[in-house]
# Entry
Amino acid sequence: MPSDSIRPEDWWFKKQPPGQSHSPGLLQKKTLDRSLETFVREVLQNINDAGLDNDEPVEVTFRLHELEETRKSFEDAICWNSLIEHVRAAAEEQDGPGLQDYVDYLDDGGTLRVLVAEEKNTSGIQGDEVSTDGDYAALVRDPGSSNKSGDTGGRHGLGSSVLWVASGLQTVLFDSYLNEELPEQESPRLVGRSFVPTHQTPDGQWYDNEGWFGSPTGLEDPDLERPESMWADVAEELAEELSLSRPNEAGTSTMIVGFRDPSDPSMEDQPSPSDVADTFERTAADYFWPAISRGDLKVHLNMEGDERHITGETIRDHDSVAPFIECYESRADASKSLGGPGDVASREFEYEIRSRKDEETPSEGSVSLAARRAYPYEEDRVGEIALFRGSGMVVQYKPGHHLGFSEKFHGVLACGNARPVGDDEPTDEDSAIDKFLAMAEPPAHDDWVGEKNDELKGTYESGCVKCVKRLKKELLRTHLSKLLYGTRERSGESIRPDRDIVPKTKRSRGRETETSTPTVATPFDWEVTASNVDGNRWAFEGWVEPDVDEQGEVVEWSVTVEMAAMFEDNREASKIPVEEIDVGGTSSDGRVEDGRGVIEVEENPEKATFEIRSEAFSDSDPRLGDVGETKFKIVDGSIGIEEVSS
# Structure
């Protein structure tokens, strides 16, 4: 009960015999990129997804404090001597840079920083101490687990581990006002967690890797046997001493103790408060402009006095995202193909997904694609397409040259609940697509992926993996081409390249027959069904088969194919060497010869499918698409026909 909460006198780690399993701690699970940008993305994503269902925006304020005059009172409040004893012991057990570097930094007189992320109009840390669902379980008790559901990207999940990654002491505190309280809960709720390696203190005692900062009353509960959350007056008074107190409204204030740039665990080149503010401001604008521009999210910064505001009123001041916002907001009155600089074109196209396995859900709907022609003076993110759904976070900026386009434009692919224009409400189909793509997001929320996504494959019907891939490649390429070029045919385009083939010969297989056909020229029928840049390699997928009118039986055939980089006037710039070729179909074979791909089919000469990949190029190599585009073509071939006896 709240009235029973007791202020802790130390940090609690469970004692364990030395022979039990030793844990390396939460931070050894390298599931996410350890950069300050990733930290901002993950924290804002979690907070944004926890917004209450009302007409008010979610507000987030990041405050960076460098503790000097207040350090002594802070250390007293957080039971510093107890915490640092365990951290020092754990540092001796941790592999690689991290704890020991931070302890040495403090011992050398380094400034102790704390970062507070204060959120408003969010749900707060819901849940009791023992349940397996709810925010408390996913964020506090078992960080790294997930309570994701429905049309959000998950309140926490694996991404919540970035909180401890950004702490030099691997320690985080939470002060929360709950939107909905359970019986015997009275906000605020205060609790702290530390995740360090299993360690031995100077007295010879071994301890588990998980530390708790909470009311010792939980030690007497047989369902807990560890400290529990502090509530009401005890929590409020301690939060005040920790500089963690917050407004009396729903939401959570999270404190990272010993805040650092997680990409520099050795503490050799930590950013200044203004540098931290630059990264936070840029990342918030670049990845959350959909939510910010429509008034769903506000971000405020106060980094040791450096104050900034990223809101609906200021977001268009950011050159890197202003063209995307204009593109997204101008869709309603846009034409179907682009004109001059500043012109916006938009179209919706059908997108097929799969129904859930446990219930029948919509399996198709529309998504919205728009493009804006860039002005000559615009430089930021030119030629990129912002991919996002209803949560309002850009999951990825997809380079247009990876799809074969070198034009100067900014694009948006608005899916799911982000598709409707103006005051239109999302349809059931929009919501189904939103939930489908939400489950396609990896822990870092930086892509939509189907492969190696067991949760997606376990939830949706067969074929769901291809649906994800098709949206980002084939469908996006096809409909972006229509926006950029209208409906005119483009010679050599990667979607359906020129059929510039005149096979040299067709010949008899040499079997003993009454009559054999003469050798004459003949075409093939073929199509490229997908092309893209994957891992700095051009890749083409498609099929090819002989297309003959002569009477007789095709007994074998072969083709030789190559790739060529094209100038924008459709002249060939250079050949692109083929490195790999995979051929499907009965009795089909593929090999690479002199930078070209060779497909051979015999015995059962049917249609052959192929996947062809070029050699890998550097990021700046123009043959990845900046020259113009890449063409796939057949340069040689032969067909063997055996005449059928009458």
